[in-house]
Amino acid sequence: AWKMYLERRSIVLTFLHTNLSCHLLRCHQKRIELLKKSSFYIEVLPKHLALGDQNHLMLPTTTFQLIDPWRFQQMKKVGTTQTKIQLLLLTDLLEQLERGREELVYYLETCDMVTFLSRWDLIKQRLSNLAELMGDFLATLVPGKLYIKHRLVPDVRATKVPNISLVLSTKMPVVFDRKESVAHKDWATLKWFSTSQRSQHEQYELSFRLLAHGTQERSHCGLLTVTSNMCEIQNLLPDRAYEFTVRRAETYSLVYEQWHDSITLKTETNPDQDMESSPCE
């Protein structure tokens, strides 16, 4: 009985260390937090390509011209709903995995040999359930295909149109470089980055606003569209706090984006400078 107890206890310990370690669960938690800050898009791909294949040839522009705009907008709504469900489901699955780990640790730390062996069938079933849960969690981490209820290309236009499928893809959040973003007396340099592989040649929107100081200064704000990962903003007021926000410029395929990075910088004091604010252009 003692040997059986040690063997079965070892099975649980191995499962905890390999599938449900604290480090692994923390990594999954960070992954969910990152996804919640990410941007989700619809991609139109030939049906023969696997999800996530980045080496595909782009579909001809004529294909996009054939897609019914109203139906595409409807699919964007489906994509938004599917993304929200995915994020909620990931959070729920991770909570179940964390509770499962606590339950297994409880069995190991509180049960004596007789109690542990008497509950082995229950523990074994729990291990099986948690392994299945982990599989569901890992599968849900990857954005999936969208179910197309209606044809995106009306029959009247469907001459030589390739079979297409819609998939959800993600881009990692755009984040300010806190070390390189600095404010001077009347101007500021902002830099940002993204870990997405396809972040080159993207357009970004950089907005700024003066944090409440005086009623006559509330209109001191602006919005710039840039194609690089840095921007200089001139004609700021000295000795003032500004909030800067960066995001990707919105595209027709965006379906979900809830988070934008912001940073607050204070300009330097300059007693000799005219303190009147400059209106937005």
From TrEMBL:
Cited CDD domains: FN3
Ranges where the Fibronectin type-III domain occurs: 174-272
Q: Which InterPro entries match?
A: DUF5581_C, DUF5581_N, FN3_dom, FN3_sf, FNDC11, Ig-like_fold
Task: Quote any Pfam family the record assigns.
Answer: DUF5581_N
Per the UniProt entry, the signal peptide is: none
Transmembrane stretches, by residue range? none
Name this protein carries in UniProt:
FND11 protein
Q: Per the UniProt entry, what species is this protein from, by scientific name? A: Casuarius casuarius
